[in-house]
Amino acid sequence: MQKGQTDSRAMPYNWQKTDTIANSSSDQNSLSDLTNRPAQTSDSTATGDTSDSTQKSDRPVTSPATSSAPQDAAASAEMLAYLRDLAAKKQFTGSALVVRHGRVLARFAAGEADESRHIPNRPDTVYRVMSVTKQITSMIVLKLRDRGLFKLNDPICRYIVPEYIKACPAAWRPITIRETLTHTSGIPNIETLPSYLANVTRPTTPRKLIQQFVNLPLDFEPGTMWKYTNSGYVLAGALIQAVTHQPYGAVLRKLITGPLNLPNTGYSRGYPPAGYAKGYFTLGSPAPLLNGSELFSATGVYSTVDDLARWDRAFGSYKVAPPATVKQAFTPQAKCPSTGCLNLPSSAYAFGWLVDRLQGHRLRYHPGLFMGYTASNMYLPDDDIQVVLLSNVQDTDTAGIARHLATLALDL
Fold it and tell me: Which residue ranges are recorded for the region named Disordered (predicted)?
């Protein structure tokens, strides 16, 4: 892939370190401990974590989980050996987390978060999550729907005229809120437009983003096909702001990160918190410094692997939303092309989740890739398995690595 090219297969994910005792034989390596404890500053060292502020950046940080079950320990060792081998071959830079039934099987980090300053990636490094944002934006929309602010089959124009566009284009009149979230609107993908790619480092507004594609012809009649487009999620963000009269980031805090205790997850119209991983197209080749306002509600969330694992588990516990809403979030909304949605193994697209099976087990996941970042967030709801891969090197195969780790977790 050439510099500046986009590929919707993978997207960055963010994780920040906590002071869990990751290799304790007690229950202190459970996800609740891992994610409930406050994040440490970048120069502190967690018990059971071999990283420190003077650590060489090419030395992987690992935290194996030791369980009372021997098979857990064996799987943990195999996962860490696999990740160490990839890191040694310069095939993985970033952070990884594998959790099963609330127990951490592997926590791992390798490579540099900032090559110019030789700051290493750690299990607590914050990344941009890119299109993992979509499952979060979708859930915000579903929760606002649950409050009676709109219906999914309402036309999107009803809520964005005149604040975001002066008038609804004739071709847009049939487009529903549901279709903006499921890539079935027919609206061209803003991420492929030269006008967008030329300005990803500059501040903008949702209105200006929408102006870039509002007058373009549709790729197909709304509701008749599936084609990935960030534009629909830009409109979803405008919808969220229009009906709540609050900025997207404030609604994110109120409905998602606050109630679920995701302290290292958020959205900024500028940049993530200090110390976040800088993006690279390949090792040694920096990507542009992306402005969050350009990414907005399609790809703008930053987070950590711990927070994303907790986010996944909130679906299984119904802490994120009532059972009916969780079920709908995972329910297929559009059939994938014959090659799979995003050219990945999948049969359908739900609300920000790809629908698939792994060794016969239900799998919901979302990958992504853009401007120096790549990631994969995998969740097997029936098995309570979460696999989160975040990388700040764009040519990393996070989707393939995550699938292999998920297979190892299933084999327990």
Answer: 1-72
- Contact 376/387 with Cβ under 8 angstroms? yes
Q: Pairing state of beta strands 280-282 and 112-114?
A: unpaired
**Distance between CA atoms of 178 and 226, rounded to whole angstroms?**
12
Q: How far apart are CA 282 and CA 286, in angstroms?
A: 7
CA-based nearest residue to 332, from 133, 184, 230, 198: 184
Instruction: For Cα atoms 254, 256, 259, give the angle at the middle one, nearest 5 degrees.
Output: 75
Residue at token pair 């951490």: 104
The pLDDT value recorded for residue 63 is 56
Identify residue 205 by its one-letter amino acid code: T
Using 50 as the pLDDT threshold, list the residues of the chain that sit under it. 1-58, 64-68
For the chain, the maximum distance between any two Cα atoms, rounded to a whole number of angstroms, is 63
Give the pLDDT confidence score for residue 70 in this predicted structure. Answer: 77
- Phi, psi angles (nearest 5°) of residue 150: -170, 175
Give the pTM.
0.86
Count other Cβ atoms within 10 Å, centred on residue 166.
9
Sign for the pseudo-dihedral over CA of 117, 122, 127, 131: positive
Question: Within 13 A of 245's CA, how many CA atoms are on the CB side?
Answer: 0
